[in-house]
Amino acid sequence: MKRKPGVITGYAMKHLFKKPATIKYPYDKLKIEPNYRGKLKYDADDCIGCNLCVRDCPTGAIKIINVGTKEDKKFECHLDLGHCIFCAQCVDSCRKGCLAFTQDIELAVMDRKNFKVKL
Amino acid sequence: MSKEITIPIGPQHPSLKEPGCFTITLDGEKVVKAVVGVGYNHRGLEKACEARTYIQDLYIIERVCGICSHTHSTAFCQAVEELAGVVIPRRAAYIRVIMAELERLHSHLLWLGIAGHEIGFDTLLMYSWRDREKVLDLLAMLGGNRVNYGINTPGGVRRDLEPQMAEDIKTVLDYIEEQNKYYIHLALSEATLAARLGGIGYLSRDDAIKYGSVGPVSRASGIPDDVRVIDQYAAYDDIPFDAITDDHCDVFGRAVVRVLEIMESIKIIRYALDNMPDSELVAKMPRRIPEGEVISRTEAPRGEDIHYIRANGTDKPDRVHVRAPSEANWHAMAHMLEGDYLADVPIIIAAIDPCYSCTDRAIVLQDSDSGKEKIWDWQGLRQYSIDFYKKRGFDASQIKVAEKKIII
Amino acid sequence: MLMALFHILIFPGLLFLGVYGLIMAYLDRKIYARLQNRQGPPWFQPLADFLKLLGKETIVPELANKKAFPFLPVLALAAVTTAYLYIPLWSMSSLYPFEGDLIVILYLLTLPTLCFFLGGWYSGSVYAVLGSVRVITQLFSYEVPLFMALLTPALLANTWSLSGITQYYAAHPLYILINIPAFIVAVIACQGKLERVPFDLPEAETELAGGTFVEYGGRLYAIFKMAIDCELVVVASLIAAVFLPFYTGNPWADFGLYIVKTIVILFIFALFRTIMARIRIEQMVAFCWKYLVPLALIQLIVNLLLKGVLA
Predict the structure, then answer these.
(1) What does pTM read for this prediction?
(2) Interface mutation target, options A3, A4, A9, chain C, most CBs of C under 10 Å
(3) Which domains does chain A have, with CATH numbers?
(4) What is the ipTM of this complex?
(5) 3-state secondary structure of A17
(6) In which domain, by residue range, is C53 found?
(7) Rounded CA separation A47/B140 (Å)
(8) What do you get for the CA distance between the two ends of chain C, in Å?
(9) Which residues on chain A place their C-beta less than 8 Å from a C-beta of chain C?
């Protein structure tokens, strides 16, 4: 094949009249797939406090704490977003379906204390 | 008169995306000697794996490499499954293949862009990364994340491939195929590309064997070294495809191998989507893995990826070892660099698609006088750095260091 | 006297050139981005870069020559600004025309290149030194075709004054067509002069990490950047004056026409930058001497013959 410089010219010129492929991020939102793994969601009603999620968490980000009494158990889930790697293994490990992920991915905060959240 | 100068490429350099140091001795613009220095990024992954359960290890292993995360987790899962004597369901094997090939697509498109950038052809970078973005969206749709898909689990896969997803994948594949045909046309007909890629970084077939190159580097030297063919895993035994080889032996050949592999991957994904059997997704896995040791191989986009696991009967491995493909390709690097121009150094380095932190496993310090191995603890290292900077007129001993408890 | 100062400092001198340079830099980046299917920067990006650099600390490296290092960026900018005064912009004549000003402009345009070389050479970094060696090697390969391409139209016009050339071609517009090969040579050689892809070897980001400018930072780098942006304007104006001498006679319309002409030339420059890979230094030298110089020589012979016929 005969080689010459500037083969891409015509192809490049076409793009002058096309919409850019990039978006202006904070103004235009990204398309997030419905099963994208974002921040966790916790439903305390069904939780039995088996701590399987805590055992399987690779980074030790999740904690289930019993705030009620021994007889009348009431659970709270504490998550450290700075440690969470959004693998959603806890969602798979949970037998009762108390944990789920949301599509919330804009989690930046100005103070690292705010990473520790109660779900 | 000829005066040689030594120029360091790295550890911080715009052409390297991760730290690595190449000490290049130049005679004019010609490279006469190259010394490859890697090892800036040791992360202690293998040791960390020993302290965690197999399920937790999966997510560490997935983060060995940012680009070939699926390959690493596949190799790890295969090893664990073999130790436990579990056979994964057929549908899970097919989904693994589809993910692996989509990963290869995005990795090769990424490489094409990097190669364009290294030779100052940023337009190619922008176009190929724009197309790669579509593949990343597919991966996010299937796995739930753009980079660490997290679709593997010991015993199978975590998510199913819905019919609608298969349709989406096919649409994107058509687009990528068309684009890739254009890139092949471009690579073959653009004069400046051919002038910059052809004839540099020469690695003959014999040298490729001698230095133990893997992946596209060895395939570009004419060695049909593809784990998908020679040691079939997952569902590759069902799927017809060809291993791409090329006999250019140079950077141009490596580019050709990669663009043709994109076409081959598209073929594989299409076949897998059409012939996917219906079955369970996960086989039952025990938490405690019986004693034994195993080696598992997969074909990463960069070459052969080897995982070794020794189990001791508990839910934590006794030893995990990862040999990432880039590690095998570093050995030929100095040989490829010598004799070429300085302008070719970045593209020759980029041509093996290097992954620096995948490579860095452990450093053994040898005393330069006695040749004995030496182990330094944290305090020793800190003292060494204080002395090092004192000699250069900077006293660092007063700087307070947080004595953080290191999680094993 | 006051008028001369106004011309030098405000219009069309330093201030206008600087502002237009920033606008051109923006357009260059925007066109480049749009050709690559990207959004591109907002309109104020070059200005923001410039102001940010001005606010940064100026560091002179320990190994650098303390006197020459801070002086060279200023010299480069001064040379470019001076050259701009001798180029016809909105009329067929420049502000201060004299016989032989074409040679002076070409000389003044070589000065920034020499400043890049010396700046790199004196900064004491191995990347910068390699970059400056490339600057000089490159200079030897594109300078000859560029000079020949710009001097052959002068030959036909029988004058060494840029204003004279412009007037001659404005009077004989058909002769412009003869100079098309010279125009092509000039545009390609100017890519080398402006150190843009495919001839951006001196700064080659991926090999030399910025090459000649690697040690420059803060205000000095801002001035260097400004000199490069202004050089783009000056070179585009020069090519417009020599090869595109179209005028209406109305100063305002001509000024608009000047803007259009420079932007067209900028578009060609940006397109060149988009469609090619950076070539190696030995390929660059071979290309310039094998293709550009013979093309310029043919143009020279054609113009000489034509001159004989016309006379």
Answers:
(1) 0.87
(2) A9
(3) 32-118 (3.30.70.3270)
(4) 0.86
(5) helix
(6) 2-310
(7) 29
(8) 42
(9) 5-9, 12-13, 15-16, 18, 20-24
